[in-house]
Amino acid sequence: MTFSFFKNKSILCPYCLAEIKYAGEISSCEGRECKKPFPTMYYKNHRQAPPFFIQMTGWSQVGKSAYLLALTQSLQKMDKFWGSNGFTIMAETEETMRYMQEVAIMEKNGSIPSATQLQLQQAYIMELKNMPRWGNRTVVTRDVAGEAFAALSFPLGYMPYFMHVPTTLMLFSPTDIEQDPRQQMNFLMMGFINTLTANGHDFTRQQRNIVVVISKADQLLDRRSGSQELSEELKDYLQADLFTSQASCSLADNVYMEKYMSELKQKGLKIQEYVMKKVPGGSQFVAQAKDYGIRLDFCLLSSLGGDPGPDKKMRVIQSPLRVIDPLLLALDYQSF
Amino acid sequence: MVINSPQIQPRQLIYTRVEPTYSPKGSGGFQTYYASPSLSGPAKEFIEERVKGFDTSDPAIHRIQFFRLENSDIVISHTQVVDVDTKILDSAGRPGIFIAHCLIFSKTEFYKIYNDPFWVLDQVKFVDNAQTMIREYDSSVAKEQPIIIPIPLSPPSLPSGFGEWTENLYELAQLGEYSHSVIAKPVTENNKILLYGSPNAILSCLRILLFLTQPIKRLSCSFNTHIPKSNFPPGSFSILGSPDWQGSADVVVNTTTHQVNFMRPTLANTDLYLKWLQRKPILDGDSEAEAKIATYQEWGGAFSYHFTPNRSRIMDEASLEFFNQYVEEVKTNLLMALRKNFSAEFAQIFTQILVNFVLQQEKFVNYVLTFAATSELDAKICSEIARRWLVDLSPDALAKLKNNILADLLRLATSANDNVLKFWILELKGDYKQAKIVLEKLSSNEYMESLELVKLQTMSVGTQIIPISIFAQSKYAHILVNQLENYLMGISDEDFCDIVEALVDQQQCHLLETLSPRVAMLENKYLTHLENKLKRNVSLPVIFQTAMRERRKVLGRPYSVLNTLIGK
After folding, report:
1. How far apart are CA A106 and CA A113, in angstroms?
2. Which of A192, A188, A189, A211 minimizes the C-alpha distance to A287?
3. So what's the ipTM on this one?
4. Is A264 within 8 Å of A329 (Cβ atoms)?
5. What are the residues whose beta carbons fall under 8 Å from the beta carbon of A164, sequence distance 6 or more?
6. Which of A110, B33, B79, B117 could form a Cys-Cys staple with A314, CB 3.0–4.6 A?
7. Nearest chain A residue (CA) to B20
């Protein structure tokens, strides 16, 4: 009698997200068009550190690239808080390594990321090991140009993960929306729902989650933002980021993170209220999501901590705020 | 009336990032800012796809792309990072905004400039800032700054960077050869040449490769001077420029040191190409050297890839030099080509005939080289050379020509529809009946050409293989008679009588008038023979009759066998 130990093994291709079932060894994607070799560490560790795909959406200039930059910076500093757990971060591809190095240089020079080009961007693959609450995960993401979301039907060629990932980060900048009414929130939700539906997604069978990220939140802190100014509670919440480099070092274990997440979700309800009341198209956005059974979570974010100066270099020391929150919310969706 | 314009005006497309205010579609982002109205939607999409990705890490990079659209139009594009402009380009003031300015030519237009993208690049100032762009181009009113390209008076001259390869001619030759083979293949086959080094060195190398490529083949070429590391688009460009060696390509060239690394053996025979490069000292601006290079280039390519060269690029003198230099290769090719149609013996002989003919007469050198390169027999040229060969052969040699050689010559004559050669071969074969049929079909020109083989000037020796009287049995006998006038006194009495009889048989007695002076030299025997033959003929010209009477007076009694025997 023989036992098929290797039956039912499968791996998600980090480039095309095809699920490849295999027995024995496999080193590259067997998807019809992809055929790319898997990164060694990805392949070796995909069972111990399951992939976690991040799909970002948002209008042009909303801050998607800046968020990716800030997230990469922040994750590299998370050992300050998760160090007792043995937290490590590791690039799994050459491109990811180069990107992490570029991020370090940009941080040093205080420069902002380039405009993202309208083409399929590189996949960045980072292994996050020994996180409290979430354990080991391999973060896989690609940047995408905001122009790709301008139409009702998104061109999926630029966003290969869009149809597959259950959780999407959707970024909005209330001040940008104020200046350009074409960017109001419900318009992006229309495109999101339409694209999924047009490509065969059934909302009644598969739930979708959106982490709504209010970006450039530093602009909402003072009265110059007019009616969009955050409440004092939300201002405090934004500024009291526990995971910034300025924050005092504290041990963040499982219990701590559980409490943190609970508070984060509570604050999310307050942010939802803010969105519905103060951001153009916000209430319609929430209604549309409800109609299609889409679960929403809300958070605030400031990737740069302030406006770049006229030379587009940061006038103040770059101090991102609440950068880790969208990632944690998305992780929670896919873990619990 | 068709007027050939001395200049061409390409259509244009500009791809960049603009703010909503300047966007033709009203939304900010990377997009086509301007496209000439006559550009089709699919053409625009194709161009966008090609230009939209650009490595903006180094603002000094200028990317040049050269490619074809599906409708065969040709695109030359220039891309560079532009200064931050928060009003027009990106209100967030992000770096990394570029402008790709593309020129689109029809195939016909591009041919007028010898399919040479570098001619365009040398003439045009591309849009390189936002202010100029919005001032000179506006899609809402189809306003564009016309770009006028003059048509060059001559093909591109030798690139100046060529001299830098003099120590690496072998590499350059191999590369030239390889680029030919890559370009000849469909791009989807994914053969690639990677040029790495500084942007200038890459451009210089590309300029040389394009120069080494026949104008017609340049159209199959596509290149991109800047592709960032590990980002080789599949099936897009056959020649890629990159700042670093990273990624896979069949040939990798360090354009700074001129080192060429073939990742797998090349199939093309580089021998011919190499030799010409190795022995050519190249002088900038030396038009003769350039013409020679062009000629060698054509022949090198023709022999390597078996195509007919572009005659307009060929200089006869250089062809002859090439012929002399590679006579052994030429002979081998000729022999192989002739063997396809003829017997081994004939192929051997005729190869030598063709080679000797070129070496001695320097005529038909381009035809013979083309024949050797392509194996495509130009039967007309070959039969003409065969005729000239026959003319030069001694009667002895002609008489000794073997039947199988004659059979092959006849086949050659038939395939060339060469009645002259056919007639002569039939005569040499002894097939007089068929020969006469062919003779009757000859045109007056062919008849004159046929006469050439009789060698009238040497008839006095009496060595002609074909009796001249045969030519008198034709409607064009007057041509023979006219030509004979010069050689009349050298004709033997026997031939003279045969000719006279043939003319009488053809009822062309009037032509005998021209031959009258020869009668005064006839021996008694032949005069008597003619008198007997012509005594009842009433249409003899008076002059001829008089000449016969005069000669009779001189010779006395008519010839008879009995008188000869008794010595009277």
Report:
1. 8
2. A189
3. 0.85
4. yes
5. A17, A53
6. A110
7. A180
Cα separation, B529 vs B531, in Å, equals 6
Kindly report, residue by residue over B102-155, the tens digit of the pLDDT.
999 999 999 999 899 999 999 999 999 999 999 999 988 889 999 999 998 877
- Tokens representing A309 are 């100066």
- Residues A306-317: tens digit of each pLDDT: 776 655 555 545
Structural element, H or E, at residue B424? helix B419-429
Cβ neighbours of A96 in B, within 8 Å? none
Q: Give per-residue pLDDT as tens, A26-36.
A: 788 877 778 88
DSSP B506: T
Tokens representing B433?
A: 């009946």
Q: Name which of A272, A274, A285, A67 is nearest A184 in CA terms.
A: A285
The pTM score is: 0.71
Interface contacts A/B by beta carbons within 8 Å: 61
Whole-angstrom CA distances from B295 to A170, B214, B313 are 64, 11, 6
Structure tokens at B431: 């097939």
Is the alpha carbon torsion for A25, A30, A36, A42 positive or negative?
Answer: negative
Kindly report the nearest CA distance between residue B29 and chain A, in angstroms. 5
Interface test with A, best of B30, B82, B98 (most A CBs within 10 A): B30
| β-sheet bridge partners, residue A55 | A168
Where along chain A do its domains lie?
8-38, 50-335
Q: How far apart are CA B500 and CA A202, in angstroms?
A: 108
Domain covering A50-335: architecture: 3-Layer(aba) Sandwich (3.40)
Tokens for B90? 């990106």
Structure confidence at residue A7 (pLDDT): 53
Write the CA distances from A95 to A51, A122, B568, integer angstroms: 17, 7, 121
